Fold each of these.
Amino acid sequence: MSAQTRAHEPYVTGHAAFAARLGSEPAWLEDLRARGLAALEDSGFPSRRREEWRYTNVELVMREPFALTDASAPPVDRAAAQSAVLGDASAPQLVFVDGGYAPELSAPPADSDGVLAESLADVLRDDPARLKGLLGGEVDIKLHPFAALNTAYVSDGAVVTVPRGAAAERPVVLRFLARGGETRSIAHPRVLLIAEPGSRASVVLDFASLDTGTHLTNTVTEVRVGANAELHVVTLQRESDDAVHFSLLRTRQERDSRLRSHVVTCGGALVRNDLEALLADEGADCTLNGLFFGAGARKIDNHTLVDHAVPHGSSRQLYKGVLGDRSRGVFRGRVVVRPDAQKTDATQSNPNLLTSMGAEVDTKPQLEIHADDVKCSHGSTIGQLDPDALFFLRSRGMAEPEAREFLTRGFANEIVEALPVEVLREPVADLLFARPSAVVGDRR
């Protein structure tokens, strides 16, 4: 029996105790959890022998099991929660602590904001039929072991609905806080974002730690963008240097819809981000922007899949990596153009900047084209700061550390400035460069 198979067993044997606390629930929800558990039992945790996990060593997860937070744990006080706020503290927001909704820390959007944001646990308790066929409808848990684990333990998270024709002026923030500390805690937030036809909105998913210590955030987000709707999704991962973070974001777009995803990763010891976009109807357009920042010995693995299933779709991917110290980054991006998806227009780019001799990045952009009337391109680069530009700045009186930071900020700025929530741009940029050693590098 492999180490990966043994490592998942505590989550299987502990599931009965978890389910017993939930009480009576609809048959479809129990079946959903059962399918998640079965998929986890069948696959176990992934090893590096799987091509999709070749560069992701899950040893941190296998050492000893993580445990759900005890329901009797004291609540997080408002001052601690406020200290973790990035950007506008007055924005409409739902706050979750160790995966559970904290209404006393939240400020849901008012009716006038045009968005309905709810706790998943509340909806499952009060109106579960509304989520039948939606929750779990877009995720293939047989392909994603940690999504299977999330599905087996799904109980809370967020449901955000943008009604037909609504135009939300203010972004909705979903803030997921992890206590951290000495216990190896685990949380399985589940998020469902629904933009109904003709609507427009922005949603921010913000993951942060309140303390150091090893904890695991295992999140799944399902997104549905209706016809002629536009949805911006900003994902900020800024957990502590001891954290483990697995995420799967799966989107489905209908006719003439627009999706803009912005993923910024600058925390954690081990981070794996999977993003899958399905363009299911003609005229759908998606943009996937990403910025990952490696410091210390951080490992960041980004996998994207854009599935052009029908004609006349367009997609743009731009993922940038800044790797310093002894960090390691991975980008594996796939664009699939199905046989009938003529007139597809797709681009994919992954430039990477190494700021130290100890940093590494592995990049593998891929095009799988099964149609003949398309316009597709991809590319990747790996390099260091331009010595001529560095010399130019130093010759005009700028010290070398400041010159290096100036050039690195310039490299990252394209992604930061594209964030749809303007109030986040400056604090996100400052957060990325909070570790000078990763920016300045070893200068060899």
Amino acid sequence: MEGTTVILGATGAIGKAATRELTRRGGTVRVVGRSLLRLKEAFGDLPVEMFPTDLETAAGALAATTGAETAVMALGLPYTEFGRYPALMRNVVDACERNGVRRLLLATNIYPYGRPQTDTVEESHPLNPCSFKGRMKLEQERILQSSRTLQWIVLRLPDFYGPDAELSYARVIFEAALRGRRVQLFSPADTPHQFAFTNDAGQLVADLLQREDGWNETYHFAGSGLITVDDFARRIYTAAGQKYRRMMAGVFVIRALGLFRPVMREFAEMHYLHATPVNLSDEKLMRHLGSVRRTSYADGIRTTLEGLRVHPFAPLG
């Protein structure tokens, strides 16, 4: 892999993991985020170019991608702000085209599928989002795929976790376990689910970027295997040395809480993923790469807890 790779949304969980893996391999990396302070906190120990800018402006996106060979779109928005994704993606694609960027990889999620029609979801599964968030993420993908000049990859990931995964569902479980408090889970919590460790996703991004073949394709990563949210939470509490205590919230409770806490309305919209999870098949990815790293839940949970004991998640909001 030659030339500069620019990581857009570098201070997010996937952006951090991809940056560390790319620099470990000796790549030339530019990290882009809104705050220079956050970039320095995240990457002060790495040989990267730090570029603070606002990607939601045409000038900011154009400056961020100048001179780059490859771009990675790893920027994640809070649940309440998904409506910003399409315009943000349009800025980035337009800037990449104007600057002659050759390739762009989009790290995204499962929301465009809506409710799954099969037990295991392959890349050929119909795209039929049943939520506003799913429609916004699908529009983001289509903007990229309609580019006149860019080679692209859409990498769909399940829920992820790790010491930098501030916007993940797993965050509330880790924080409750470390504080010895009862965790609130969305019911049902006994359906098969997938979680991906962020470091595995970072290595996967680097693996895909180093290949000259396999572009203009969508790939799935199935993470570390099927597990129920209840079992996942129980393992976190055990690893933290705490007694597992939980309370369950169904969709009606979540909607009621949304009267007082607006973010809960956002969770209610996505509740279908707990009753009918979208579990990904990554056979296509395996055929393309041959192998991928899958950190065990035991190792991933331990590493996450160790990281959070030193650097807790920043407050939301």
